[in-house]
Amino acid sequence: MLCRFYQWKISRLADDNITILPGGLRRHLNHCPDCRIFYQTSMDLTVRLQSEAVFQRKEISKLLLDQILNSVNQAESENKPVAARSSRAVWISAAAAMVLIIFALIVTMKQPATTPETIPERSEQYLAINNLEHFIPSNEFIAQEISPQNLPEIWSQFMEEPLRKEVDGILRETTAAFNFVRNVSSLSIPDKKAEPIEDK
Amino acid sequence: MARRAQKGSHDAFTELVLRYGGRLYPFLAQKNVPAIEVEDLLQDTFLKAYMNIHRYQHRSKFSTWIFTIAARLAIDRYRTGIRWKSLDEEEPVAEKSVDRLEQQEQKQNLWRLARQLPDNQYRALWLKYAEKMSIAEIARVMGKSRANIKIILYRARINLASRMKQSPDYEMPDGFENHNPQAGE
User: Fold this and answer.
1) Which CATH architecture best describes the domain B2-79?
2) What whole-number distance in Å separates Cα of residue B115 and Cα of residue B38?
3) Using beta carbons and an 8 Å cutoff, which residues of A are at the interface with B?
4) What is the DSSP string of A115-140?
5) Looking at residue B53, what DSSP letter applies?
6) Complex ipTM above 0.85?
7) Do residue B129 and residue A59 have CB atoms under 8 angstroms apart?
8) Where are the domains of chain B?
9) What class is the B93-183 domain?
10) pLDDT tens digits, residue range B32-90?
11) Does A64 sit within 8 Å of B43, measured CB to CB?
12) Test the B interface: residue of A60, A63, A78 with most B CBs within 10 Å
C-alpha cells in the first residue's frame, strides 16, 4: 500500500520533470528495492522516450504536402464563390425590401381616408346633421332665388326657430355696432388745449 | 509564421505544414491505423487549421492549437467505430518506407512499443516526451483534466514498462513487473 503511494509520487515527479527527490521518498527508496527499480525504470523511460522521439519525426513526403496544399487551395476556391454569392444575396434581399417598403408607402398614400364610424340613427349627432342639411340650400337655388332684397325672407324659410333667433340677434348687434361707429365718426371733438377749462 | 498565415500568406501556411506535419504524423499514427488513414487525417487537420486560422489567438502556442485540432479529429474519426485490419495484414505505419539499416533501430525504438498502448496513453506520452508539453497543455489538447492526464501518464509508464519486460528486444531491470497495478485502460 505504501509502495503504491510512492510509485504514484515517483510518477508525479516524472510528470513535472523533477529530479530532486523529497526526503521521505528518498528514505523509502533506500529501504525498498522494488520501488527503487520502479524509480530507475521511470527515469530510464523518460530519457529513452525523449531521445528516441527524434527518430519518429519524419518530414512529410512531397506527395502528401502537395495533397494537403491542393485540398487547402480547393477549399479556398470553393469558399470564395460562396462568399460572393452570400454578399450578392444580401444585396438582392436589401433591394427587395426597399421595393416592398416603397410599394407599401404608395398604397398607403393612395388609400382613402378611413370612413368614420356610422352614426346611429336617432342619436343627437344624427339629428343635428340631418337638420343642418335642411338649412343649406343648393347652389342652383341660391343662384336663382337669392337676391339682397329677399335674402332675409328666403333665409328664414330654411331656418328653424332657434337658429333664426340667433341670426336675428347677430343682425341686430351688427346693425347696432354699425350705427355706433357711424355716430362716433360724425362727432366733433372740441380742442381742449385751445380752450382750457376754467376752475370753478 | 502563424500571424503571416492568418493574414493570408500561402507561403507561411506551407511552412507551417512542413514544420508540424512531421510532428503530427507520429501523433496520429496509432496502432492498427493504416498509413493512408493517417495521411487522410493529417490532411483534414491542416485543412481545418487553414479554415479556422483566423480563430487562433496567440495566447497559447500554435503547436498546442494544432495538436488540439488533430486530437479531436482523431477522436471523432476513430470513434465512428471503424476498425482497421491488424497491422500484421497492412504495412505498419512506423515501418513504412524504412530501409533495412533503419529497421533494427526502429525495432528497438521504444515508441514502436508505445504505439501499441491504448490510444490516449500513447498520445499523452507523445505530447509529454516528444512535444515536451506541460501537463496543462496536454490536458488542453486531449480535453481532459490535469489529474486525469497524470493518471493516464502513470498507467502509460506502467504499461510500457510491462511490455518492455515481455519483449525480447528491450532490456528491463528485474522486478518491475511486480508493480503493475491495473495497467490497462
Assistant:
1) Orthogonal Bundle (1.10)
2) 13
3) 3-4, 7-8, 11-12, 14-16, 33-35, 37-38, 40-42, 44-46, 48-50, 52-53, 55-60, 64-65, 67-69, 71-72, 75-76, 79
4) PPPPPPTTSHHHHHHHHHHHHS--HH
5) G
6) no
7) no
8) 2-79, 93-183
9) mainly alpha
10) 778 888 888 888 899 888 888 888 887 788 889 989 999 998 888 776 655 554 444 44
11) yes
12) A60
